[in-house]
Amino acid sequence: PQVGTDLTDLPLRRRVTVRELGGCMGPIWASYYRDCGAVLFMIDAANPTQVAASCVQLLSVLCAAPLAAVPVLVLFNKIDLPCYMSLAEMKSLLRMQDIVSCATQPITVLETSARDGTGLADVLQWLQATL
Q1: What CATH number does the domain containing 99 carry?
Q2: 23 a known binding residue?
Q3: What Cα–Cα distance (Å) separates residue 130 from each residue in 14, 32, 53, 94?
Q4: Based on C-alpha coordinates, what's the Rg of the chain?
Q5: Residue 1 confidence (pLDDT) above 60
Q6: Which stretches are transmembrane (predicted)?
Q7: Annotated binding residue 80
Q8: Is 3 contained in some domain?
Q9: pLDDT, tens only, 54-74
Q10: Number of independent structural domains in the chain
Q11: Burial class (CB in 10 A: 0-12, 13-18, 19+), 73
Q12: For residue 83, is it within any domain?
C-alpha cells in the first residue's frame, strides 16, 4: 500500500510529473486537484474487500468540481496474481457502466500489473494522448 506522496517525472513528449497519493491520504487529495491535468485511479483487483472503499473514493474524485473536465484513467492493478478479479467482475462490482454514464469527465479503464509491467505501455500511451 502507498503511504504518503511520491513524485515521479515521466519523459513523454513533454515532461509529465506524476504525484502518487495513497488511499489512506484520501482526506487531503482535494488539496492537489487544482494543478491536475489527468487522474490515474488505481484499484487493487486482487483485494475484493477493498472494492467498496475504492468505489467511494472514486466517486468522491469524480464529484470534485476542479476535476469536472479532467480525464480519468481507472487502473485495475495486480492482474498478475492468481486471485485477481477479471475486468468484467471489477466493472460489475463497481458499476462502472453507471459511473461512466453519469460522470462529466471522460473515463478510461485498463488492467495492469505494476509488478510485471503488463498494461503499463497502454498507460503511457493514454497519458501521451491525454496530456
Answers
A1: 3.40.50.300
A2: yes
A3: 12, 19, 27, 24
A4: 14
A5: no
A6: none
A7: yes
A8: no
A9: 999 999 999 999 999 999 999
A10: 1
A11: buried
A12: yes
Single pTM value for the model: 0.89
Here the cell at position 46 is: 486482487
Do 115 and 80 touch, CB atoms closer than 8 A?
A: yes
Computed from CA positions of residues 113, 119, 121, 124, in that sequence, does the dihedral angle turn out positive or negative? negative
Give the residue numbers spanning the domain of 116.
Answer: 38-130
For the cut 80, the answer to whether the pLDDT of residue 26 exceeds it is no
The answer to whether residue 59 is domain-embedded is: yes
In this model, does residue 4 exceed pLDDT 70? no
Distances (CA, A) of 51 to 19, 37, 78: 22, 25, 14
79 belongs to an annotated ligand binding site: yes
Secondary structure in 3-state letters for the chain: CCCCEEEEEEECCCEEEEEEECHHHHHHHHHHHHHCCCEEEEEECCCHHHHHHHHHHHHHHHHCHHHCCCCEEEEEECCCCCCCCCHHHHHHHHCHHHHHHHCCCCEEEEECCCCCCCCHHHHHHHHHHHC
**What whole-number distance in Å separates Cα of residue 64 and Cα of residue 61?**
5
Q: What is the mean pLDDT of residues 90-107?
A: 94
